[in-house]
Structures are given as C-alpha cells and as structure tokens.
Design goal:
By secondary structure, the protein is mainly β. The chain has 4 helices and 42 strands.
Amino acid sequence: MANAQFIQGKVYTLYGAGIITTDTSIILSSFTTPDGTLITTSDLGPQNWGTIAPNTSNEEAFSFTGVTQNADGTATLTGVVRGLLFVSPYTTSAALKQNHQGGTELILSNNPGMYDDFLSESTDETVTGTYTFTNFPIKSGSTTPTASGELSTKAYTDLVGTGTANYDQNLVAAVAGATVAAGEVVYLKETDGEWYLADASVSSTSENVILGIAQGAGTDGVAISGGVLVAGLDKNATYTAGSVYFLSDTAGALATSAGTVEVQLGVGDANNNLVWMHNATDETLTADEKDALAGNNGTPATANKYVTQTGFQLGAETYAVTATGNDTYVVTLSPVPAAYVAGMRIKMKVDVANTGACTINVNSLGAKSIYKNVTKPLLAGDILADQIIELVYDGTNFQLLSRKNSVVGDFGGDGSDSILNVTSGTTTLSAANANYLVKNYTTINISVGATLALSNKAANGTILHLKAAGDVTIAGIIDMQGMGADTDTNGYATLSGDTVDYFGAVPATPSGGDTGGTGKGKKLTRLSEYTITQGSLHKKYIVLACGSGGGTGSGSGGAGGAGGGVVIIECGGDLNFTGTIKIDGDDGVTITGDNHGGGGGGGACGMALVLYNTQTAVSGTISATGGDGGDGANPSSFGDGGGGGQGGGSPSSDGGNGGNGKDSGGAGAGGTGSNPAGAGAGAGGVGASGGLSQGIGPGGTGGATDTTAYLVTENVNL
C-alpha cells in the first residue's frame, strides 16, 4: 500500500439534512482527532475508508481520498465512492447506496477493501528496508539462469559483461515453406512467415530479405529442426579460413564467387566455421545500388557530394546572378567547377542588358564568348536586364539557348491590367483620342453574345493592342469597325514615310456636271520592309495601317465613311478563336432630298494581327470589308449633278471611283461607284435636268473581305 497513513478518529455525524443516494461528497458537522485537531488531506493516505450508520440496517461502506475543512467548522469529504460491496471485489453497488438523515453517525473503519489493498499490485510500493533472499525466486539448480522468469546473479552478469559468456549462435524458431536441409541458405517470406530456399538468380529471394542458414531439416509447414541461424557461427560445413562466401545461383547453396545478385553471406574463420555477416533488411542497399552510388564522373567526396531531390529542384549548383554592370559577365557557382567541360550548363540572371558582343567568366576560369546561332556574336538587346538565360559550353565558347522574343518584344505582356472577362453585353475601351492603345491582361475572355468595342479614337485611326500573358478566348466579337481614319483622312500606320494618299479624292464643285472622284484612294505600297543593318537582315517588319476614310461627295455631298481600325492580339498562352473580329470600313453617307451633292465614298478596311503560342481553335472570322458608297441625290430642282466621292484604299486595292454627276441638260441617273476588294466603294453621282428628277446615282457596294489585311499565326522566336 503506497505511503499508507493511519489516524485515530471518533464518531462523526452528518451535517444538515444528511445525504441522498446520488451524492458524491459527504459534509460532516466536524472532522477532527479526539483531541480536537482538524484533520487535513495531508494527514490521510491515498485511499481511506469509513462506514455510515454503523450497526444499523442502513449501514453503508464507503471510501474517500481527501477532505476540505470549511470556514463554518464543517468538513467535506471528497473523492467519495459509496455503496461498496461487503465482499470481494469491494466495488461500488447502486443497491447499497442509502439515504441518510442529518445527525446520522459516521466512523472511520478498517473495511475489507482496506485489507485487500495491502495485497493489490495496482499501486506503486516503496521499500525502504533491505530484503535478503537466500535463493533466487526461481531456483534452477545452477547459478546460470535458464528460464526467462529467473533472476540473474551478479556472477552471471559479470560473465556476460566481460564478453566471455558461452554464446556463438543466434537461432530463431522457424517453419519451412518448402523442403530444406541443414546448412542450406533460406529466406523469410513476409507474406506467410515461413522460410524458403534462397537463390541469387532470383532477386526476390535474395535482395532486401532476411537470410539465414537452416540448422536442420524441414518440410512445408513443419518446423525446421534446430531452427535457423541469423547471427553467429555456422558449423554445418567445413569452410575455408579467410574465404568470403556468397549466395549461389543454385537454390540454398553457398559459393566463393558471387551469383547473379551479389549477396555476401560471411567469412570462414580459423576453426573452419562460417562467421555469418548478412543482416540485410528492406532498407539495405543492394550491390547494384552501391555500385551506382559511385557515380560516373569523379569519386564521391566532401567536394563532390550527391545531389538530393530538393537540391536538384533548386538547381543551386548551376544557377547564379551576375552583378558586373557591363557586357563582361561574371558568375560564381557553388560548388566551384574545376574547369570548363563541353556540355556544362549554366543558368544565370543578368543584371544589365547586353549592348553588343559579350563574354562570361565562371569562377575565374577565364572569359568565354557568348554566341547565338552557333557562331554569331550577340547584338545589343539580345539579353534583357533581369532576364534568366541558359548557356551551354561547346568546348570553346558558350552558346545562348534562351533569348528574348524578337517578334513582339515582351510577348504576352506583364498582366498589369488584370483579367479581361466580357461575358455579356458590350464592354467599351476608350482610346482617349490616341493612335495607339495597349492593354496588358493576364487572360482574355469574350463570351458568345458579348462584344469588346472601342471609343474616342484618333482622327486618323487607332491601333488597339491587346496583350495576354495567359490564355485568350474569343467566342464573341471584337468590334473595330469604323475605328480607322475619318472622311478625307489617311489612316495611321505603324511605319511612317509612305506618302501615298489612302483616302478617297474629293470631286470638284459641280459645274455643268462633275466627274466622280478619281486618282486617290490608293492601296498601301509598303506592306513590309527590311532593315539593313549588321546582323539584322533577317528582321522583317509588318506594316499595320488603319483604314483610310472615304472621300466626300462634291457639291453639298455626303461625308465619306470612316476606315476600319487595327487590332493586334498577343496570346502568351493558348488561343481559342471561334468568334468574330470586325475591322470593316464604314459606309459613305447617302444624299437625300433636293440636293445636287454626290454621295460619300466608303471607308477602307483596317488590319488585324493575331499571334499565339499554342491554339485550341483558330476557326473564327475576321471581317475586313470596305464600306459601301453613299447614293447620290435625286433632286427635283434645276442644276448640275455633283460627282460621288471615291472610296478609301485598302491594303491591297485602290478605292472605288465615284460615279459621275449629270449636267443640267443631261438626262438619266448618276454613275454607280465601283468596289474593289477590301476597299471603300465609290459613291453615286447626281443626275438633274430642268428641275426634273433624273434618278438616283447608286453608290457602289463595299469591297469584299481583303484576306491580305489580317494574319493569325503562331508566335515565332527568331
């Protein structure tokens, strides 16, 4: 009984109304020793017993663990377990719990449970004295214990501690999974826990398994006589001293040369026994794995460490940051490479853009030129500041594998304008009257039924440049119709210096009948150019021009239609284009009423360029038609008919000629404007004579889509 303490009590009484069967604490009128000393928990043992209503029919045994002395002189017993059985096992019973009135007697008593606790093994015991045994608790007749329950003597313990105990084998009881004989090598099969013959030609029976030597015979399902040796000396055969023994390709046999799988088992000692050395588990490296650890380039050492998976992902051994501030780049790798070797790869973050031919010096091994296209020195801007590039040493120089994209600068943009997601209705971007508007999105989506439009274009047209670092989906409409040049205005182009007029000519004021506009509205003459500078003859620039406006009709003629705008789309991810891009020219204005003016010429189509890295679909439609020419009037008053305005020129076609007006003495309708592909159509002239209606001069229909006005293609790194 742990730390048992006993006190002399007296007869106590229940306080107040007493207790009922469910109470788990007991309040006494007082709780003192006979001399009046208050009893505290520290005076008690870990378990204490008492009896309520002793020597009555309501007698109840209980136990408690502590007491609280209250300010009013009462005391509360805590940790109370009531209704204890009067016989073993002395546990609580609900049937023995009683209701007791206030004033009922309570005494501390030596209940049967107290005596039972003296014999219990469930509590800790502290022995402060010395117990002397004349015999071991279990005597075997020898000072050497032979049973697992026997204590060992000091003499035996000393013998084992000095290493002179008689021990030369570690044997385990074993059940055979097949027929085995004494001296054969066996392995433990984990699926059934039985032992089978090991074979070096079968890796599953020889690698990463527990091996041993059978010490006797055994058959399937029967214990192996003498068990299996897993450590110590095997004495089943005569082994050659100093010879190393391996598992053989013959099942169960040993040999002095390795089998298919190299498994070393032990070495013969001077007594011709085998010192068993094999202790493999499923965590043990195989012979092939050990051979692989040597690597194929250098011996593993402190300065030639293995690379972990995490280290390989970090790429620290081949990555560095330059900080030279010029074209003579210097990097420091860790660990330090001994020399430049063909095939050596380096990834580095460049601190400044190159200004021309440049070199790299790795860990002071010497400066080496950096070339592109095998033998070509770099040109200014081939490497950008903060760009991460990869170089490979070819045995003489470093070749640049990664270069900046030379098609559209930083292709796909930087995503600074977040996401463009047009799911319904029309979303309008304002050009703020600028010729060029660029937006950098992370992704672009224009859903079916939704439209992206432009407002506040420049007078000579606006180029809308949409960049997306990620995917672009165009299932709805991008509407750039009429976002080119106004009437009588050349369209804005990405390449200056072309002096050809693209808009329609304005006919003269009618004078006895006027000829429709002719001689202007020419097609673009510089759709592409080459820049002739050293190393850049391969660079070809595409000219993108807004559609020009149609010419105004003569007299009080109608205004020409505006040309189509330009849209450029860069898709850094995947393009899914199934919708429509509109770059059409607007129609010229039709003249109505008693007016001798000619109709306005139609505007020319704009241009579109769509570049992508990958594509799911490019089956969408690009509409690049010229605007219709406006009809001439059919005046009733006397006067000469004005000529129609000429249509604007498209990328591949001159604008349509305006129809001729009729003079005051002529008869019949005004001429019909012509309509080349993609160009704005010419407007109709006016016919008038003697104040009589002579008929409307119909404007020409705008030219059909000009396929030279747009391009949808994969982005190419040059």
